[in-house]
């Protein structure tokens, strides 16, 4: 907290919130306990009037947040007093002076502060600043507190002294050199509005009107408003044009202020619509100052069509958006006009809004000391000599190592001096780059790059923190990181959490690459990643124990950090960004998150998402995207983390297992989990895997609901800044999501390709009205959630894809397609899926005079008959030039000879169609396998006289016994498509695993497309509705060989059950004793 003086207070606009943070560092003894107390005193006349500070202002932390409009205009003393709890004479204090100043009245002559309108001279024109002006410092503008004086001049005529004419009801304007009109006008008694009579304005002229408003109680408080009126001898209507987000373009004199980095979103509307509207067109003009007439010379921007859908969106709609790329590309242009033209069969009307580029702060410097250190070193940044005509608002600090786009925020302050802790550096020099953003009062920003600092990546501090946490019962503040976290300062806690989390994430990546066997059982692959190569060093128990030890140690650190973050208040935008960024990094390694960590992070991020939703209209689109990006990562991280053990994809952490000793009475209300509670909680206060599973499942269901609320709030916040045709995307290793605002008509045959092999294809028809405006919300997460009802589906190696259509209020719209044109999804699997080897069958050694085919039985029994799977058969002959006939029958013996044709289907496996890897592939879709228990397949090698052609309509039939001249290998697996129902159970009704070709139409509910596009790396699915989707996968066991003496058994009873292998096994990752 940097002290200033009463004579030079920090200026704060009344409509801005104020955040002050103090760094408290005791110098006298190691473990002194202190209390903090903030007081605010009004010093406008004298510093004797103390202000009563009530909720929501918290005055006992090391920081204070004062909401907007809380303090009246004037100068205030903000004082922090720190006292020792045990030694009352030990106290210290610091003082900051602030001045609350007016934000600025926006004097609007017409609605929304439109800069220019067209006007029919035969109509009345009313200028009404008393009605349309705005006061950001109050709930509404009080027109009775102001005096109004109106001026007029013909626009474009050189300005000379006295040429503006005072408009007065009773004074006749007789001078031909300065009069604006020849007829009468009138005003209200308070003069808060004036009406110019019909035929007073001359056609083909442009008039400029100005109102000068003076506060009655404070004559020094004055504001002016301007309007250009273009008079055209044709019927027209008044169009109101304004900024969708008024905070993004505040008024400054004749112009709206716009920052180079701000996206501009405009709206327009007819004030009194009459007749039918044919079309809307937006035009953009560049302005150059004409010094002789004190006006701008406007020229049409002719490249709009080249950048439609890139820079410009909604060019023919009432809402129009220009991205900041327009202003960044044409930095030398300081003035812009955005004009909207409404046309009908009989009328043409236009209005415009004028903008001036808000120039960023300049001429200053920033420095940082010392030039090297560790993660516990206190670095100090000093900025000075920065100037801006609107005043400096604040300074924000960022750091990055290898890629500037991956920079992290470290805090912000209104002070020009800032203390911070930096993350570890990269490379041999361990360099960290620091950036300072300097903002003016209207958020125009410039960046200062500081000299790179060396931050040595020693892990001693991390190990010391782990040790301190382990002895928490006797923990002292001697550990530097613990001491910093104990200060309950949001900036310090955010910095420490960011720095420590980055080190832990790096350590987590290193331990994973040691080459743990069956890596899919303890690690969920990041999106877009490839299979992790095994370490050249052989895996052993020591490596595994090292992994377990580090996992549990790091999990305890992350939980300690999250508990520190949980108590922090979320107030200003910068404060929320810092906390969201820190928690996204903290939750990145999902295999190191305990249930408590996940619950705290989920609740915290949900609360911040609600705050983001409420403040979305107050901050820029970039700011909303940055915060939303981190919050989405946080939400999906904790969702994956809490489901990983349930999906047998992550460790059962030691902290979780030890806490799984709660009694049954704690959870009697959770009957929906379908668990035997009495059996699970028979032995109280004793950890067990069953009990841990119960707690994990319960937590997972709570988090699933919170995450849904978090994502819904973020979608609403994103949507505020989108115009039709725009989209916003979050693309990280934790989650991919895209929100696009579009027309229903553009959804027809739309294909979304988020990343990798994931795809979504929306068909030509749906139940929505084609003219509706909707938002398309698609998301991919690296791990499917576990079903509430355990053991029925195997989605553990599937990613999770969701697609929703939202209305203008963010509510989900139900969409349905028909079975002939379903919605198509490609759902990727985890790249670390272990593909089993093919089983070799030495069929050349087998001779059986009784059978024409060599048979295999494959079990496809499902625990729930309503859940269906597809069967995939792969056969690789040792001699790929041979041809084969394959037959199969479900739940029975297939037979095919000249006397008997008892099969469900057949296929010729021709050498001419074999895949590049020498494998014949066959697929039985889940419609055909539904409610069946097993499949028996038979192979026969064709002789040289039998023709193999896929065009054959009948199979080649023989009574000769099978005779194989070459052995073959066989491999089978099952796949499935599931959607998540309202009870968080995976279902497959209405879904069909697809392949390449389409079946003939039938009356079946599964009238869908099929083909050969499901493999080990992805599942292709079709659905007639939108939801959240995942795929199932299981290795089918080596098929059982069947001969004639077994056929009777298989006909009359279920064969021995050979369930599909579990992909992964659950592990208790506790340290070996």
TrEMBL record:
InterPro entries: PKD/REJ-like (IPR002859). Residues 28-457 form the PKD/REJ-like domain. It comes from Rotaria socialis. This is PKD/REJ-like domain-containing protein.
């Amino acid at each position: 907290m940097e002290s200033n003086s009463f004579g030079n207070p920090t200026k704060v606009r009344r409509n801005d919130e104020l955040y002050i943070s103090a760094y408290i560092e005791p110098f006298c003894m190691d473990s002194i306990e202190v209390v903090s107390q903030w007081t605010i005193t009004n010093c406008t006349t004298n510093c004797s009037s103390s202000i009563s500070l009530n909720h929501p202002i918290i005055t006992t932390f090391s920081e204070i947040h004062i909401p907007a409009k809380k303090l009246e205009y004037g100068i205030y003393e903000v004082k922090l007093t720190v006292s020792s709890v045990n030694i009352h004479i030990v106290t210290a204090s610091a003082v900051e002076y602030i001045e609350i100043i007016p934000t600025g009245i926006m004097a609007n002559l017409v609605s929304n502060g439109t800069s220019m309108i067209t006007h029919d001279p035969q109509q009345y024109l009313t200028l009404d600043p008393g009605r349309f002006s705005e006061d950001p410092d109050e709930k509404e503008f009080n027109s009775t507190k102001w005096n109004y004086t109106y001026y007029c001049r013909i626009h474009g005529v050189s300005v000379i002294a006295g040429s503006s004419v005072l408009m007065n009801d009773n004074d006749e304007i007789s001078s031909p050199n300065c009069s604006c009109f020849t007829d009468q006008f009138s005003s209200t008694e308070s003069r808060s509005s004036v009406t110019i009579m019909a035929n007073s304005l001359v056609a083909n002229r442009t008039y400029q009107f100005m109102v000068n408003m003076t506060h009655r109680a404070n004559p020094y408080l004055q504001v002016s408003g301007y309007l250009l009126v273009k008079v055209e001898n044709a019927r027209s209507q008044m169009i109101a044009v304004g900024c969708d987000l008024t905070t993004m373009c505040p008024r400054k004199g004749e112009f709206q202020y716009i920052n180079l980095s701000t996206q501009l979103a405009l709206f327009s509307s007819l004030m009194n619509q009459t007749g039918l509207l044919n079309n809307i067109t937006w035009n953009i003009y560049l302005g150059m100052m004409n010094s002789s007439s004190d006006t701008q010379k406007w020229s049409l921007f002719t490249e709009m069509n080249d950048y439609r859908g890139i820079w410009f969106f909604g060019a023919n709609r009432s809402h129009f958006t220009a991205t900041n790329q327009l202003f960044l590309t044409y930095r030398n242009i300081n003035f812009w006009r955005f004009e909207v033209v409404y046309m009908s069969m009989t009328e043409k009307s236009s209005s415009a809004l004028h903008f001036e580029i808000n120039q960023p702060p300049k001429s200053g410097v920033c420095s940082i000391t010392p030039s090297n250190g560790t993660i516990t070193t206190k670095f100090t940044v000093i900025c000075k000599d920065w100037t801006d005509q609107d005043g400096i608002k604040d300074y924000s600090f960022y750091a990055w190592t290898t890629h500037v786009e991956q920079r992290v925020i470290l805090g912000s302050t209104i002070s020009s001096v800032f203390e911070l802790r930096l993350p570890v550096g990269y490379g041999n020099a361990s360099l960290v780059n620091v950036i300072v953003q300097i903002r003016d009062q209207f958020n125009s920003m410039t960046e200062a790059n500081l000299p790179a600092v060396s931050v040595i990546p020693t892990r001693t501090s991390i190990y010391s923190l782990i040790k301190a946490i382990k002895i928490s019962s006797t923990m002292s503040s001697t550990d530097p990181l613990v001491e910093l976290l104990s200060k309950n300062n949001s900036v310090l806690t955010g910095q420490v959490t960011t720095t420590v989390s980055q080190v832990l994430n790096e350590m987590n990546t290193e331990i994973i690459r040691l080459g743990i066997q069956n890596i899919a059982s303890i690690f969920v692959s990041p999106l877009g990643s490839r299979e992790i190569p095994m370490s050249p060093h052989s895996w052993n128990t020591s490596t595994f124990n090292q992994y377990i030890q580090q996992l549990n140690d790091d999990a305890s650190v992350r939980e300690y950090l999250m508990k520190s973050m949980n108590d922090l208040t979320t107030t200003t935008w910068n404060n929320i960004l810092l906390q969201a960024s820190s928690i996204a990094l903290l939750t990145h390694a999902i295999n190191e998150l305990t249930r408590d960590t996940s619950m705290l992070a989920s609740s915290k991020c949900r609360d911040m998402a609600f705050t983001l939703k409420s403040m979305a209209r107050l901050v820029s689109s970039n700011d909303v995207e940055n915060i939303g990006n981190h919050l989405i990562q946080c939400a999906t991280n904790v969702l994956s983390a809490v489901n990983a053990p349930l999906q047998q994809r992550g460790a059962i952490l030691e902290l979780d297992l030890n806490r799984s000793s709660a009694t049954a009475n704690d959870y009697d209300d959770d009957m929906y989990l379908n668990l035997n509670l009495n059996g699970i909680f028979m032995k109280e206060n004793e950890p067990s895997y069953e009990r841990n599973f119960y707690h994990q499942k319960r937590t997972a269901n709570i988090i699933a609901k919170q995450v849904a609320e978090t994502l819904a709030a973020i979608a609403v916040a994103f949507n505020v800044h989108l115009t039709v045709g725009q989209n916003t995307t979050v693309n990280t290793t934790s989650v991919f999501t895209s929100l696009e605002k579009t027309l229903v008509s553009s959804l027809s045959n739309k294909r979304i390709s988020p990343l990798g092999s994931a795809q979504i294809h929306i068909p030509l028809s749906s139940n929505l009205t084609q003219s509706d405006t909707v938002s398309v919300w698609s998301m991919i997460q690296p791990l499917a959630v576990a079903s509430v009802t355990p053991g029925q589906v195997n989605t553990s190696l599937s990613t999770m894809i969701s697609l929703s259509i939202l209305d203008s209020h963010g509510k989900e719209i139900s969409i349905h397609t028909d079975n002939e044109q379903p919605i198509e999804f490609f759902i990727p699997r985890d790249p670390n899926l272990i593909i089993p080897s093919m089983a070799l069958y030495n069929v050349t050694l087998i001779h059986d005079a009784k059978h024409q085919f060599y048979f295999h039985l494959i079990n496809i029994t499902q625990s729930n008959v309503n859940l269906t799977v597809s069967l995939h058969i792969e056969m690789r002959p040792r001699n790929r030039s041979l041809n084969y006939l394959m037959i199969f029958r479900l739940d029975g013996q297939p037979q095919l000879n000249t006397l008997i044709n008892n099969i469900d289907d057949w296929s010729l496996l021709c050498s001419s169609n074999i895949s590049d890897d020498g494998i014949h592939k066959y697929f039985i879709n889940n419609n055909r396998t539904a409610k069946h228990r097993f499949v028996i397949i038979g192979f026969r090698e064709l002789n040289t006289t039998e023709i193999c052609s896929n065009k054959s309509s009948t199979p080649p039939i023989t009574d000769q016994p099978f005779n194989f001249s070459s052995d073959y290998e066989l491999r089978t697996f099952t796949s499935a498509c599931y959607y998540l129902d309202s009870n968080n159970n995976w279902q497959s009704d209405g879904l069909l695993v697809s392949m390449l070709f389409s079946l003939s139409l039938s009356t079946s509910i599964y009238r869908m497309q099929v083909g050969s596009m499901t493999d080990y790396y992805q599942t292709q699915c079709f659905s007639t509705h939108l939801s959240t989707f995942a795929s199932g996968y299981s290795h089918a066991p080596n098929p059982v060989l069947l001969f004639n003496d077994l056929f009777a058994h298989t006909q009359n009873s279920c064969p021995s059950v050979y369930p599909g292998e579990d992909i992964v096994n659950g592990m208790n990752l506790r340290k070996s004793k």
